Amino acid sequence: MVYRRAKRNVYLTAAAGVCFATAYVAGLAAVWAFLAPLWGPAEAAALIAAVMAGVGVVIIAVLSFVKFRERRRNSRRRAAMRLSAAAAVSILPRLTKSRSLLVIAALGGLAFLATQGGDQE
C-alpha cells in the first residue's frame, strides 16, 4: 500500500515537473520574442542569459548564507548540550548522598536523552 502511494507520488511529481519545465521554457521563449524586435535576437538572448546567471548567483548566495546560519545554530546547540551535560555531571556528587534524589536524577537524565534523540536529519 505504501509502495503504491510512493509510486503514485513519484509519477505525479514527475508530471508536474514536466509541466513546470514546459511553462518555464515557454516563458523564456515569450521574453525572447518580446525583446528580439527591440534589441535584436542575439542581444535578447544575451540579456536573458545574463539575467538568469544573475538569478543563479543570487540563489547560490542565499543558499550559502542559509547553510552558514544553520552551521552556526548547530554549533550553538551542541555547545548548549555540552554545557547542560557538564552541569548535570557537576551536581552528581551532591545527588549521590540521597538515594531518592539519585533515582530522580537518573529518571530525569533518561528523559532528557529520550527527548534529544529525535533531532537526526
Task: Write up this protein.
This protein has 121 residues and is mainly alpha-helical. The protein contains 3 helices and no strands. It has helices spanning 2-39, 41-95, 99-116. Helix 1 (2-39) packs across helix 2. The two termini are 25 Å apart. The relative contact order is 0.04. The mean pLDDT is 85.
Task: Write a concise keyword list for the protein shown above.
single chain; 121 residues; mainly alpha; 0% strand; elongated
The secondary structure category is mainly alpha
Main pleated-sheet profile: none
From N to C, what is the helix and strand string?
A: HHH
| Bulk shape | elongated
Could you tell me the strand content as a percent range? under 5%
Overall pLDDT: 85
The total of helices stands at 3
